[in-house]
Design brief:
mainly alpha, 2 domains, two-stranded antiparallel ribbon
């Protein structure tokens, strides 16, 4: 009986390792897809470049998730999975309606640029800022302002200013996906993309971990003693593997369909293996 249990546990462990290895292979597959897009699409438009950059960021986060899963770093993996989910939502939203892809991609860049400009201006307001840092952040501001002067951003900037004015909150920027009557928050965004279950049952738990509210779970104390759990988890982190794999498959097929529809069957087969 003991032998059977050990044998069964060994089989399960091998199965989990195979899933982790497959997820790592998927990151490589996504990277190769980016290279193929670059080789075959020489005349990419501004909004196309934004989508590619967003997908690359998603792959970077997914790669980090794989590394943390391999090392059984449950806390850090959970925080990273939260970021992976947010990137999944954003990119899925951009690609979910063909007629709005350009508008949403430009809205994403505008939101990103506004946040970076705000941070840069905040840093520059400090009198102790070094000359090197000052130069760096002035450059960030100039690059974004120069980009936003392009006429293709006129519509989204007007919409941003309208939504910002309605909010009547000087220090709070509207979520980029809320422009043009989009979802007001991540919960609404999740609902629109039919992943509200993940948001309600998992994202909240991810956020609790991200904000450090689970600290007491890593200790066990009595009146006489205090024990600390190991930094590395004994769990296999199957939930993290499942969602990382699921998000990758959905986004990669969407990216392929948008940039290289002729390769959709090929990538569909590769992500289903």
């Amino acid at each position: 009986m003991v032998y059977d249990e050990k044998y069964s546990h060994g089989i399960e462990k091998l199965a989990i390792e195979a899933k982790i290895e497959k997820l790592e292979e998927y990151v490589t597959l996504g990277t190769n897809l980016l290279l193929d897009i670059h080789k075959t699409n020489r005349k990419l438009k501004q909004h196309d470049l934004i989508i590619i950059a967003y997908y690359k960021k998603f792959l970077e986060q997914l790669d980090g998730l794989v590394l943390l899963i391999q090392h059984r770093s449950k806390s850090a993996a959970t925080v990273t999975l939260r970021s992976v989910f947010e990137s999944f939502l954003g990119l899925e939203y951009i690609l979910s309606e063909d007629s709005k892809i350009k508008q949403r991609a430009l809205s994403y860049y505008l939101g990103f640029a506004k946040e970076e400009i705000d941070v840069a201006e905040e840093v520059l307001s400090f009198s102790s800022t070094s000359p090197e840092t000052t130069e760096k952040f002035f450059e960030i501001i100039e690059i974004h302002k120069d980009d936003l002067n392009d006429p293709i951003f006129t519509e989204v900037i007007e919409e941003w200013n309208t939504v910002k004015g309605i909010m009547n909150a000087d220090h709070v920027n509207p979520a980029w996906y809320s422009l043009f009557y989009g979802p007001k928050n991540l919960k609404e965004l999740s609902k629109e993309l039919d992943v509200l279950f993940i948001y309600e049952h998992f994202y909240s738990a991810f956020s609790i971990e991200a904000h450090g509210f689970t600290a007491l779970r890593s200790t066990h104390h009595t009146e006489m003693d205090l024990d600390f759990l190991k930094l590395r988890s004994e769990e296999e982190l199957e939930t993290h593997i499942h969602f990382g794999t699921r998000f990758f498959k959905i986004l990669t097929l969407k990216i392929t369909e948008y940039f290289s529809p002729e390769d959709l069957k090929l990538y569909s087969r590769q992500v289903s293996e």
